[in-house]
Amino acid sequence: MERLAQILELQPPSIESTESLFAFLPSKAGVGCSTVALNTSVALAQIRETKVLLADFDLNCGMIGFMLQIESPYSVMSAAENAHEMDEDLWQRLVTTRGNLDILPAGKLAPGFRIEPAQVRHMLEFARRNYQAICIDLSGILAKFSVEILYEAKQIFLLCTPEVPSLHLAREKLRFLRSLDLESRIRVVMNRATKNPLIPNSEVEKLLAMPVYMSFPNDYLGVHKALTSGKQVSASSELGKGFQTLAHAISGSKKSVVENKEHGLLDLILPRKRPVASPQSVLSS
Prior knowledge:
Low-confidence stretches: 255-274, 276-285
Radius of gyration: 19 Å
CATH superfamily: P-loop containing nucleotide triphosphate hydrolases
Number of strands: 8
CATH topology: Rossmann fold
CATH class: Alpha Beta
CATH architecture: 3-Layer(aba) Sandwich
Number of helices: 12
Strand content: 15-25%
């Protein structure tokens, strides 16, 4: 064991760390950010060899656990509390696995709970070593840990709807993100778009001084059906196809979705790998 430790010290194990971390930030509450984050994560998990983590960091109004009918007692808060001692066995107990998608819900409402930026960094370092893609659902409240996540993100999807209050707050968030020098990572996503909107995308782009990266159609019925069944939006619907388009765009994959027929989350079965512990944990084992 001593000889092995010496070898590992001279030649530490090579651990790949993904850069594919995507943050979903709502302009305001109620614009459908969680719906977009969830369905994009599912679409990513349907791309072959893509192991995905969906983490709900909206500690006050997190909906991912409810939308997927997850009953686990563990959450993002559990992971934060154990971030400095995280290993593969503990991580597997914390996440809820649905095929090739792992989920960390926000957990029960805990107004006094605070996540420190250092905890976020440890969590994301661990996640980057164990997933090909990470999707994080944020609240519109830009707490310190949320800003830390935004700095870590490869792309930031700013969700808004074609309504004045949403666009006003989208502009305010853009102003703040530009002050952090994050403008190049921002992608404006228009949700609940209609064929003849009162505020067309051309006007939105003028207001925000940024192009609309993608628009998702309004489909209240489809979203309602998904919500009541604990599944993703129908992949055959216009909205479902939009989520697949976004997933392939951000993954850079030209591969087709595993199957394009109706699936529940439990049907996304693909071979899975055990989590990779930190180099320190490898040396101590």
